[in-house]
Please model this.
Amino acid sequence: MDLLADSREVIRNDGLLLLQQLTKGNTAIQKIVAFENAFERLLEIITEEGSSDGGIVVEDCLLLLLNLLKNNSSNQNFFKEGSYIQKMKSWFEVGDDNSGWSAQKVTNLHLMLQLVRVMVSPVNAPGATASCQKAMFQCGLLQQLCTILMATGVPADILTETINTVSEVIRGSEVNQDYFASVNAPSNPPRPAIVVLLMSMVNERQPFVLRCAVLYCFQCFLYKNQKGQGEIVATLLPSTIDASSVSAGQLLCGGLFSADSLSNWCAAVALAHALQDNLTQKEQLLRVQLATSLGKPPVSLLQQCTNILSQGDKLERRGSRVQTKVGLLMLLCTWISNCPIAVMHFLHNQDNVPFLTGQISENLGEDERLVQGLCALLLGICIYYNDNSLENYTKEKLKQLIEKRIGKENFVEKLGFITKHELYSRAAQKPQPAFSAPEHMLFDHEFTKLIKELEGMITKAVLKSSEDEKKEEEVKKTLEQHDSIITQYKELIREQDCQITELKEQVASLSSQSETLQNTVTQQFSQIQQHRDQYNILKLKLGKDSHVNGLQPEERSQLREQLEELQRQNQLLQTQLTDRDSLITSLVRECVLSERAGVCLQEVELLRAQLQSQSAEITELQREKQELLRAPDATVRGPGEDGVCVELESRLSAQTAEAQKLKEEVQALLERKEVMEKELASASSTAAVMQTEKNQLQQELQESKKEQDDLLMLLADQDQKILSLKHRLKGLGETIEDEDDLDARDQSDDDDDDDDEEECDE
Model:
């Protein structure tokens, strides 16, 4: 391994040759070399040497890689996990001009394709193959291979190997099969790659190995691909036929009825793969009608196949009679197996059963024995999958026909010719059609599986007597009844399982609750014991000698005392609140008096106005008096003028006295006003204080009521707990005395004490 990293190319190349010899057929050495980082180094050398354009060194590296990976699942997994598949994509990049490839490039590319096939070989584990197929699609390797497939100028052997490689990359992989169905050939107009490949398969001028490769590719495309099977069969149905373009179905029908026996065989096998394990498409294909010639009504595809079989002389003239018959018989066996409707259609033609019995009963040559065996298989399928819908060809009548015209033992012997044929075992080995010559192309790999499945069942069905069949029918009915009963029991068991699961969950939940309750009971027992001890101590302190086995919790008495205290506080607060309300009422009355004082003030103002008016009159009278005194003729007055002056003076004196009186009243009112304003301010202040205290008292009252309610609830809960604990203690066998009994006992004890004291006094 160290030699692979040697800088001298001669040493490195000899190391490659040595490792090739060491790794041949030796799994242990293959693993050692792989885990010594051989893959990384070999891929580096291939890249350094020019990949597919490189020389003999690239070929040596590829041969060593094949030795390491072929039939070695451990190394294959290591190669995949190391992301070496992604590095292979660059090997298959080809240009537009693919002419003039050197022999070394063809060899290198051929080995590279073989390396891809080793990773996705059908003989590998299904899981490993699927993961490699997924990796090849994700990294674009499949897309690159399809590019080579549709490229022009690619050498025939490289094209053939590429077709085989693409076949195994898509085999059984839904994603890869869907991608391949979408690939179009670069033609005008574009055609699907499948159609282009089928053209090569039914063309007798194409190389035999290329036609085999195309058939293998078509088989791999349809392998476990019901969607693809439906698309192929749909191209044969009347509603989907497009006359302007060639479809896969048209090519298969053309090959099935062509003059080339190899095309007949390939088309029959390809069509059989479109029906493999697909009951829906078997029934759909019964709808296909073929126009045989002008002026004649169309016939079904099923009938046309049997018509060709019965035209033995025509097949003799065409040559390769056995190959065509074998292909058609394989198609018919695949078509009607496990499809009672197809069996009914086949038996509906009155000529088919006589033809089969005639073929089986004849003594033919060695080459025809295989045809006889396949005819026996076809007739056996008609018996095994018969639903007895045709009165003339029920299971029992067909068996009687075999016994009369062929003989049961002879029928079973002819049926056994199939598996004894030398080409049967060769075809059963691997899916790829590998034939040394066209005449050896007789058996299909998937058909060998069908023979293996049906041979034993048909033999038993034919050899059984009618009585055995009746018994078997009865047994089947009984088994069906048993199955239905078992199904019912299974459903019942499922329901019971669900119920058991639910009950288990409930049990778990109840167990959890039980544990919680048990813990609570334990705590309660502990509290009860403490309460007992406290109660007994209190009894002893009170001087009571009798042992009390009842319950009188200290907490309960404390809560009662607190409740009584709160009730007293509540009553006190109620009394205070009543006093404050009466005080506020008196203050309100004083406020009313204050309003009355305001009315007095208004009267004072009115008196002030009157006083001012009278003062103005006095002033006016005094002014008039002064004017009279200053008059020029004041010295000489008549008696009338003196009288007027006297009158004016008297009026003035009266007005002055009245004004003085009013001033005194106003002064008294002002003093009273000031006193009342002071009383009003004091009353307002007292009222505000009282209102604040009232609000506080109401708040305290509400809080007190709330606390009282809480204490009542707490006391009720405590009573309930004590009652519950009493019941539990009674259930546990403890003797519990009620509180009334205890009070009665205490009362009787007190009475006894009083009696004793009275006796002592006496």
